[in-house]
Amino acid sequence: DSSKHGTIKPEPKIYEIAEAMAGVSPEELFFIDDVPEHVALAISRGWQGMVFRTDDIAGSIKEIKRLLRSMHSS
Questions:
Q1: For a Cys staple, 49 with which of 10, 31, 38, 54, CB 3.0–4.6 Å?
Q2: Cβ-based neighbours of 47, under 8 Å, separated by 6 or more
């Protein structure tokens, strides 16, 4: 809840807070958003990321499942 921290996407501070709260390395984080710029910032920090396409919800869900399977099999 970014409102508790006084920052919002795409401000880098919210990504820093999320990293600290997650307590894992950045490459273990998987960020999904429907705004490409938000996803690009997460990826630039070393996170995994995917743009959720609201015009293809079923396709986006299928892609999320595929990515999660590939992350867990690595």
A1: 31
A2: 15, 26, 27, 29, 30, 31
